[in-house]
Amino acid sequence: MRTFIVLLQKEFLQIRRNSFLPRLIIAFPILIMLIMPLIMTMDVRNVNVAVVDLDRSTTSQRIASHIEASEYLRLTHSTTEYPLAMDALEQGLVDVIVQIPDHFERDLMVSTPERISITANAVNATKGGIGMQYIVQTIARTLAELRGEKSPTKLSELVTIENRYNPTLNYRHYMIPALMIILFILICGFLPALSIVGEKECGSIEQINVTPVSRLTFTLSKLVPYWIIGLFVLTIAMLVARLAYGLSPVGSVGAIYLGAALFILTISGFSLTIANFSETMQQTMFVMFFFIMIFMLMSGLLTPVDSMPEWAQKFTTILPPRYYIEILRSVYLKGTTIAELWPNFVALGIFALCFNTLAALTYKKQA
Amino acid sequence: MNDIVISVRELSKRFGNFTAVDRISFDVYRGEIFGFMGANGAGKTTAMRMLCGLSYPTSGKGSVAGYDIMHEGEQIKRHIGYMSQRFSLYNDLTVWENMRLFAGIYGLNKSQTEQRATELLERLNFSSECNTLVGSLPLGWKQKLSFAIATIHRPEVVFLDEPTGGVDPITRRQFWEMIYEAAESGTTIFVTTHYMDEAEYCTRVSIMVDGKVQALDTPTRLKQQFAAESMDEVFRILARGAQRGE
Q1: In the 3-class helix/strand/coil scheme, how is B3-52 assigned residue by residue?
Q2: How many CA atoms lie within 13 A of A71 on its CB side?
């Protein structure tokens, strides 16, 4: 125990004496949380729409005027000929074409009408895709209104759209939890590895290896400081999210910290394992980057896991950030409880245990 | 004098095709200053690392302080001190913090640490520097501090790998005084050096050439054996036969 305390004391002294680390630990989360949500927005606005109105009825006009009224959509072309609209799309003047078929209004009253066709320019897949969704919503709303007016018995709306949990569809609220995870990966993923490899490069690790310090004690002494730092970083990040973006967790703060505690252990344990296999800083950095790219792009931080190909979805089950982002998003936005999310906590717990055992086992005192 | 502290039989270490240490055998007795000589690349450091439990032997047997070097490396580490060729204390910690760290690692409690560190600092005339960052100390002082820390837990054996490399003659002299003091208190000293005048201070000297121990005896008898004036000459005679370059 005394060994562990003196080693821990040494780690904190070294971090404090470093001219750069303490500043990084405070400034990094603040900057990332302040600036990145402004930049990492996928809110789509100003979608240019062409309406090809073959019906020329009040219904079709109503659809067009609703499109025009939408704050996200801009009705730029109104025509009765599809090829004209298609030309505009090819020239990039229009993002989405809405074609309302002939006799749409008449058929709507008596039976199922021919379908409205929507064509989107999906070169910018996000803009095309989200633009299309907006149009579908707009049309659905128009039709529901019509139904309501025409029907003698007041029917319930045809389609109701409600964005639960993120009522304003604010993309920032979706991104902020992801940014917190990115912070953990960068701070608690890189620093422990660099600290070990730094000791290898300056030779001090040899002086440790020739003492009776157990591998577990030494590994823990590298782990615990970054665990505390990680929880501190989370606190800063949550404060900034609240002050700058008015986002506070709906669910319990305890669930967020518990998840963070497990996730930081996981990522630090992973980082220590990489360090045990590396001899130089370059090697460590490069290998870490490789894995971090996978963690960031495949864990559902930036894009939903559900829309990945099936093999990729299966692959995400071995990526720790995937479990924590689910916890963080649902606790933050939905207020989900630990009881409901227990499989995620268990998964993180298993990862934390495995990686840290691996880190202790792969640390070789004797070659 | 017959209390054997280090015993090595047919010890070898190979890296691929290269045999760094080639079937060496020797014994070291309690309280002696054992000089471990050899040209650069002769295999001294490799042999020493095996004795300290930093590296596994490829073949052969050995024991240090009664523990087997193959299987009981961690037990050995409780009973030895080691000072590496390359300065390896923490440069960003102060003299006192380094002492406290290693004393703690070796299981000394707070008051023992306090007592032992104060004693060592006084002997080194270092008390005024106890809050200086180790990185800013001159090399000679760093080496003396490394030695002090290697003996902080009063180990049975201290391994010193070229402790006086790059150190001025006065500091070297002081360093050897520290070594003598430690040896007198019963600590066995296992030391490598390139300075042949230092070889004269040793109880016994072994000289390694190309991974093998070519000579082992007291400096006086080695000089007689090779009909040489000094250890320097003995070394030249033996090293001339070396095949390995530097």
Answers
A1: CEEEEEEEEEEEECCEEEEEEEEEEEECCCEEEEEECCCCCHHHHHHHHC
A2: 1
Contacts of B105 in chain A (CB under 8 A): 3, 6-7, 208, 211-213
**Rounded CA gap, B183 and B33, in Å?**
7
Indicate whether A256 and A299 sit together in one domain: yes
Residues A114 and A94 in one domain: yes
Ordered by where they begin, the domains of chain B are 4-239 (3.40.50.300)
In a domain, A163, yes or no: no
pLDDT value of position A128: 78
CATH number of the domain enclosing A114: 3.40.1710.10
**CA dist., res. A269 & res. A222, Å (int):** 9
Q: Helix, strand, or coil here: A119? A: strand
Residues A6 and A58 in one domain: no
Interface touch B88/A202, C-beta < 8 Å: yes
Q: Could you report the per-residue pLDDT of B52-101, keeping only the tens digit for each?
A: 999 999 999 999 999 999 999 899 999 999 999 888 999 999 999 999 99
Round to the nearest angstrom and report the end-to-end CA distance of chain A.
26
3-state class of B245 per DSSP?
coil
Single out the residue in A150, A185, A214 at which a domain terminates.
A150
**Chain B residues contacting A via beta carbons under 8 Å:** 52-56, 73-75, 77-78, 80, 82, 84, 86-93, 97, 100-107, 109, 133
Q: Which residue in B64, B88, B91 has the most chain A C-beta atoms within 10 A of its own C-beta, making it the best mutation to test that interface?
A: B88
**A6 and A94 co-located in one domain:** no
User: Which residues of chain A neighbour B84 with C-beta distances below 8 Å?
Assistant: 203, 206-207, 210
Q: What pLDDT digit, counting tens, does each position of A61-119 carry?
A: 888 888 888 888 888 888 888 888 888 888 888 888 888 888 888 887 777 777 888 88
Specify the number of domains making up chain A.
Answer: 2
Of B130, B142, B140, which is closest to residue B91 (Cα–Cα)? Answer: B142
Smallest CA–CA distance, residue B90 to chain A, in Å, is 6
- Same domain flag for A174 and A255: yes
Q: Does any domain span residue A155? A: no
Instruction: Name chain A contacts of B102, Cβ cutoff 8 Å.
Output: 207, 211
- ipTM for the whole complex: 0.90
Query: In terms of domains, do A107 and A26 share one?
Result: no
A322 occurs within a structural domain: yes
* CA A7 – CA A196 distance, rounded (Å): 13
Q: Between chains, do A204 and B92 touch, taking CB under 8 Å as contact?
A: no
Could you say which of A13, A202, A211 has the minimum Cβ distance to residue B106? A211
Contacts A–B by Cβ distance under 8 A:
84
Task: Point out the domain boundary residue: A120, A150, A180.
Answer: A150
Contact A212 B102 (CB under 8 A): no
How far apart (Å, rounded) are the C-alpha atoms in residues B228 and B215?
Answer: 14
